[in-house]
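Attaching the record inline, Q. Sequence:
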Amino acid sequence: DSSASYVTQQYQDFLARDPDAAGFAFWQTEINSCGNNAPCVEVKRINVSAAFYLSIEFQQSGSIVYRATKASFGTMPRFKEFFIESARIGRNVVVNQTGWEALLEGNKQAFFKGWVLTPNFVAAFPGSMSAAEFVDKLDTNVGGVLSASERGALINILGSTPGDQLKRASVLRSLVE
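Structure, as predicted:
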């Protein structure tokens, strides 16, 4: 029931990392500002969880894993997969620390390059698919969100080499983001 345990769990659940000192202190202070007022503490805890969910760090890691899974397979990720992949994207990233944006970008590039090489993705999107088939299947999995011009632009990225893994990673990332 301690605010320290609660905040630590939010970092682990949403960001797959231990808390940084500044954030840890900030979020504990937010909860502890209620003193012994139990209804206030409950509201503060809900608000802290919401803040983690809406944070740049989560939106740029966990949310991407969710959307990549949806685009690739039309499903939600399983917990273990979600946790592992989110941690991979967020590895060593602490928002507002020097170099965090470049580190996050590198992690996202590595994630998408690796994602299109996984056995499940390769099975769902064999290299023999045409560029249009590849893009259309992704679009179908996410609910048909692409306009004709967006679809055409993604097909053009694949060009005459729709099996190229780097191009596939680029198309998937474009759709996901």
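The CA atoms of residues 153 and 171 lie 9 Å apart. The chain has a mean pLDDT of 94.

More tomorrow.
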